[in-house]
Write a structure and sequence with these properties.
three-stranded mixed sheet, 204 residues, two-stranded parallel sheet, alpha/beta
Length: 204
Amino acid sequence: MKIRAHIKSSLVASDRRELEQAMLFACLAVDGTAKKLYPDINKVGERFRKFISDHLDVIELMHGGLNLEETVFPFPNNKGSIGIKFEDIVYEKFRCSLAHGDELPDGYGIEVKVSDGIQQFMIDIEGQSMTLPESVIYALGLPCVLSPANSDQKIGSNLYHYRDPINHYVIDRWWGQVDCARKIMDFEHQVRVKMDVKNVWPSA
């Protein structure tokens, strides 16, 4: 599938409240975009994580609330090491599970938003797991649309769009325009909470 098809399918699934399906298509859009953007990186996981880390400013704005750059969650990664960042959670717990047709690990999921602009998610310290807000689907999708690697994409309809806290992006008008988007995004007033979990960090 083309990147445009992944983006469209993600939004359609989200509208139907099929959030795991929407997340899968968003992750596939990241996969495809990262492959085009970083042709010298052969490992899927490495380029997937790099795409997220390189676009964390946009992703944080769309995700809402958390400082995803500096927060380290006290959960094990796939190798059993404690301490996992947002890009690792998205890749290991969501992308790999969903793309391989597996169920999400226990305690992981996508939470339906309460209302426009009000998201919810849960962190289970004891269970070493967390859910992500519905906004993560759009937070992953918009950077794919804005990436110059996808400037040749077109859905063919102005019905599909993303919103950040103050801007509205009709997708077919914004393919490849990440620099323009960053100029109008309100980074100055966004909330960025760094979670401090030192007091609940599991013992070695």
